[in-house]
Structure formats: structure tokens, C-alpha cells
Design brief:
single chain, Flavocytochrome C3, Chain A, domain 1, five-stranded parallel sheet, 32% helix, globular, disordered C terminus
Length: 505
């Protein structure tokens, strides 16, 4: 079987490596093979791993419970059970491929992060876990014989007789395949402030949407509470708060104590909204992350990368609190899949951040994205050998793509999304955003790839706003000030399709 994997982060490379033993695999990536979001991950991999004995009192059941609690009622419990129970084997595979997790003596070092009930986050070089994972996978890829096409942007899926049979690149070339696996990550550049790399423009998700795939829960975009609030600032890992750093407002007050009993270790949506609210109350000025009690020596040893980043901006965070603010971080929604990555379109699979398996629900638990890529990357590879399933039929909302005529630049689109579909939303703001987006066409790009990215961001912005409008409640990362509580009854997925009223999935 000819398998085309689009994307080269942990999800895509795990799938490609696992599938290469049985299939002819090609990896296609828009930039360099190591240029995606995986290598930006700082915190680590959350897993209950008994290689040297799990943290005292921890268990897979506890990990499941924490994930479900963070997901605020929208998780698929079966997906969560798979993630947590199959996580140890996936981490063992990473170790086998050369990932050297940090140790304290003979035991693996384990960190605590927000909304975890135990210290279960494995890390590498303190805060360089993603870079180490990506390097190990890329080295395994080079030894595998898998074909890699770098600097090859995928524009659209090729669909014939209702099945995906390949992709079309931004420059018009077609690449045929018996199965296409999307592993293209998220779209942080829907917003002006993001922790994501420049390549995160939702290319795979937009292509799937245009091809008619069912997508789900696109309104669930997670905003990380702490991005360094300086020009060119980057993520400040949740693990810093896990080590004991606290958030203070302009008056030096530790305001999270008044918001949630877990304070700085509350779920990300709670902390991010609390910071945004406090920033609004103090005229838009960022809050500060105070890690000074940890000491400069400890910070340099535990977080060498972050220490260097702060120093590059003239900040000595061992002695002075540093400014932080929320930023777009992770898309819990995506292409709707089953537990093996299969989508509503025959021949198309999706894995990692681009997929909506139900594992994260309304709010991803900290340090579970790398675990998701490893676990579901393996499951997706195995699904290539399974018989094609008969999809179920689901009710969907319809989102219209195209038709606008008013040029909209990327910065203007990002401003529309931040204002109307950011951390706090309401019907009026969403309607205003929808009106602007519906009238828009992507402004001409400087080159063919930039033009493609801008088209993708516009299509996805329309879909996200449609999902946020349809979900008339507040749940997890989706907060409606005009509907602050949960809707009555069980949580439901918001499913969208770009054409038709009912679609298979």
C-alpha cells in the first residue's frame, strides 16, 4: 500500500515509522522535516510509566480521571482510556528510539503540572522534551528508508468516487496514494498571539474541510496562560508553575488564590481567563510570573532553555518576575476520527492535533499532546491494515466557505478572531466576526505558500466561528459570557461539514 503521511511531528513520524515495516511510506512536510510544533514542546510527556516505579499513589485510573476532569464533560471516555493505558508502551517506544528522559539518580524525574493529581510528567534536558523527541524520531526516519519530501506544501486532497486518492501540492503537482494520513498540527496563527511555530496554519484541517470531511469541536481552541509578553516572546512552560512559580498582578498580589482553590495549577482555561480578566482590569498590562523563590541556580538547572530565552530579552527571571499573557496554543477540535484515526472520507486518516478523537474534550490536560501523538500515531499505522469500516451517519451543521470579495489580510483576520472568538465570546461578537469573515477573501500573498496559508486560515476562521456560534454554552476553553454555564443534559460535540446537511462519519 502507498501511504502518504502529511506532517512530520511526533504523530506523523510515529505513524510513518510504524507503517514503514509493511507499506511504502512517503512523508510530506511544508518546511524542513524538524520544523513543526513538536520540537517546541517544553513540559514533557504525561504518563503513568512503571519503568522504575510510578509516582507514589499514581495510577492509570487517576490519569484517566484527571484527563476527563480537564475535558469538562466533552471527552470520549474510550479515547481517554486508550491514551492513558497505551501511553506506557508508547513512551517505551520513544526510549527505544533514543529519547533519554531526565533522571534523578537511578529513577526517572517526574514533574507536576496543572490539573494533574500526581507528578507524572517525564521530561528531557529540563524543558527541551519536544526537541529531543523530534530529533530521535527524525534520526529513526533517516534510517528507515521512508521517502521524505521537504518544502512541499499540500493544498488540497484529491477525491475520486468519494475516496481520497492523494494530494495536490501548492504548486499543482499530484501525489497519488492508497491512504493519506493528515498529521499537520494546529492553526495558532488564527490569532495574533500564539505559542505555535510559523508553519501552524491549519493546512491539513482546511484541506479536509474543503474535501467534505466531518470536523468537530472547532470552537475548542486552548489558550496557554503564559507566553512571555515581550516582542518575539515564546511559551513559558506550565512546569514552571508546577515547580512553585506564582502569578501576580500589577500590585504584586497573587490573584489566582481568589479564583480557584488550585490557584496556578488550575486547568489551563481557568488560568488563562483569569489572567485575561486581570489584564483588562489593569489597563491591558500583562501580569507577571514570579519564579524568584525558586532561585536562579535551580531555574538554570531545571529550565535551561527558558533561562536562556529570558536572558535573550534582558530578563533575569531568577531575580525579577517576568511579564506573561495568554496565547493561542492547541486545537482540541479537528477532523473527526474514530479511535484508529479513520475519518468520514475513505482513504483519509488523521492523527495528532489535526484530529478530533475526543481524547481532550473541551480542554487538553497539560503535557498530553506528545503522548497523544505517540499513542494514536501507532494506532493509526495499524489501522492501515484494518478493513474499511462502514461510517455512522451523524447530524451536522453546515459551514459555508468562499463567496466573499473583500480582501482581508492575515493581521486583520487575526484581530477579528482575537476580538470576536478569543478567550471570551458572545453572540454579538461572534456575529460581527462571522459577517466580516463571510464578506472576505484572503488578501493576495507574497508567494504561493503564503497565499495557501491565508486561504486556509480564512476557511478555518469561518468554521471556528460557526462552531462557537452553535455551542450556546460555556465549556472548557469555549467561554460564552452570554451563556456562562453548561447547557442542560450531556455534553455534545459540535460537528460541521462544508456541504450537505447530513454526512457520514
Amino acid at each position: 500500500m502507498r501511504v502518504l503521511v502529511v506532517g512530520s511531528g511526533i504523530a506523523g513520524l510515529t505513524c510513518a515509522l510504524e507503517a514503514s515495516a509493511r507499506h511504502d511510506v512517503t512523508v510530506v512536510t511544508k518546511a524542513g522535516v524538524a520544523d513543526g510544533a513538536t520540537r517546541w514542546a517544553q513540559g514533557g510527556v504525561a504518563v503513568v510509566w512503571d519503568a522504575d516505579g510510578a509516582a507514589a499513589g499514581d495510577s492509570v485510573a487517576a490519569h484517566v480521571a484527571d484527563t476527563l476532569a480537564a475535558g469538562d464533560g466533552l471527552c470520549d471516555p474510550s479515547a481517554v482510556e486508550l491514551l492513558c493505558s497505551e501511553g506506557p508502551a508508547a513512551v517505551a517506544d520513544l526510549v527505544r528510539r533514543g529519547v533519554a528522559f531526565d533522571r534523578r539518580g537511578e529513577a526517572y524525574a517526574r514533574a507536576t503540572e496543572a490539573a494533574h493529581s500526581a507528578a507524572r510528567v517525564l521530561h528531557v534536558d529540563g524543558d527541551a522534551t519536544g526537541a529531543a523527541v523530534e530529533a530521535a524520531l527524525v534520526e529513526s526516519l533517516r534510517r528507515s528508508g521512508v521517502t521524505v519530501l521537504e518544502h512541499t506544501a499540500v493544498a488540497d486532497l484529491v477525491v475520486r468516487d468519494g475516496a481520497v486518492v492523494g494530494v495536490r501540492t501548492a504548486r499543482g503537482a499530484e501525489i497519488a496514494a492508497d491512504a493519506v494520513v493528515l498529521a499537520t498540527g494546529g492553526a495558532g496563527h488564527l490569532y495574533p498571539f500564539t505559542t505555535n511555530p510559523a508553519v501552524a496554519t491549519g493546512d491539513g484541517l482546511a484541506a479536509a474541510l474543503r474535501a467534505g470531511a466531518v470536523v468537530g469541536d472547532l470552537e475548542m481552541y486552548q489558550f496557554h496562560p503564559t507566553m512571555l509578553a515581550v516582542p518575539g516572546g515564546s511559551l513559558v512552560s506550565e512546569a514552571v508553575r508546577g515547580e512553585g512559580a506564582v502569578l501576580r498582578d500589577a500590585d504584586g498580589r497573587r490573584f489566582m488564590l481568589d479564583v480557584d482553590p488550585r490557584a496556578e495549577l488550575a486547568p489551563r482555561d481557568v488560568v488563562a481567563r483569569a489572567i485575561a480578566r486581570r489584564m483588562a482590569e489593569q489597563g491591558g498590562a500583562p501580569v507577571v510570573l514570579d519564579a524568584t523563590a525558586l532561585g536562579a541556580e535551580h531555574l538554570a538547572r531545571r529550565f535551561p532553555g527558558l533561562t536562556a530565552q529570558c536572558a535573550a530579552h534582558g530578563l533575569d527571571w531568577g531575580r525579577v518576575p517576568v511579564p506573561v499573557a495568554p496565547a493561542a496554543h492547541y486545537w482540541m477540535g479537528g477532523v473527526r476520527t474514530d479511535l484508529d484515526g479513520r475519518t468520514s472520507l475513505p482513504g483519509l486518516l488523521a492523527v495528532g492535533e489535526v484530529a478530533r478523537t475526543g481524547v481532550h474534550g473541551a480542554n487538553r490536560l497539560a503535557s498530553s499532546s506528545l503522548l497523544e501523538g505517540a499513542v494514536f500515531g501507532t494506532r493509526c499505522a495499524r489501522a492501515l491494515d484494518l478493513p474499511r469500516r462502514e461510517p455512522d451517519v451523524v447530524d451536522v451543521d453546515v459551514v459555508a466557505l468562499g463567496g466573499g470579495t473583500e480582501p482581508l489580510s492575515r493581521p486583520d483576520l487575526q484581530a477579528v478572531m482575537w476580538q470576536g472568538a478569543g478567550l471570551v465570546r458572545d453572540a454579538a461578537g461572534l456575529a460581527a466576526a462571522a459577517a466580516t469573515l463571510d464578506a472576505a477573501v484572503a488578501a493576495p500573498g507574497d508567494d504561493v505558500v503564503t497565499a495557501l496559508e491565508d486561504r486556509n486560515l480564512l476557511d478555518l476562521a469561518r468554521a471556528l466561528v460557526a462552531g462557537a456560534t452553535a455551542r450556546e454554552e460555556s465549556r472548557g476553553a469555549h467561554h460564552r459570557s452570554d451563556a456562562p454555564g453548561h447547557a442542560p443534559g450531556p455534553a455534545r460535540a459540535v460537528l460541521l461539514v462544508a456541504k450537505g446537511e447530513v454526512a457520514p462519519c
